[in-house]
Prior knowledge:
By secondary structure, the chain is mostly beta strands. It has no helices and eleven strands.
Amino acid sequence: xxxxxxxxxxxxxxxxxxxxxxxxxxxxxxxxxxxxxxxxxxxxxxxxxxxxxxxxxxxxxxxxxxxxxxxxxxxxxxxxxxxxxxxxxxxxxxxxxxxxxxxxxxxxxxxxxxxxxxxxxx
Length: 122
């Protein structure tokens, strides 16, 4: 499956953005999908995941209550709604897919999008 992330940009602290991850080649309804981010000089950090079966979700503590992952299987797209953004949320955000029902670490995922930059100003 090929993934294309979009929706990043510059936003002030406290603002919101919605990232999209459009899939092609395969239907994402058979994949667990995840969002990760990588800030300059840091490793890739888990943000959120959604299973392909039940739609169960999981979030990193750093974004819990502010971010929400969702999927629209009809549009073959996964979203990350980001609210109450903070400067420390600044990073390149990546979406990823796995044929497994679940994943929370980068090595769980086989397919990756190219990343979209989110910059939060204070």
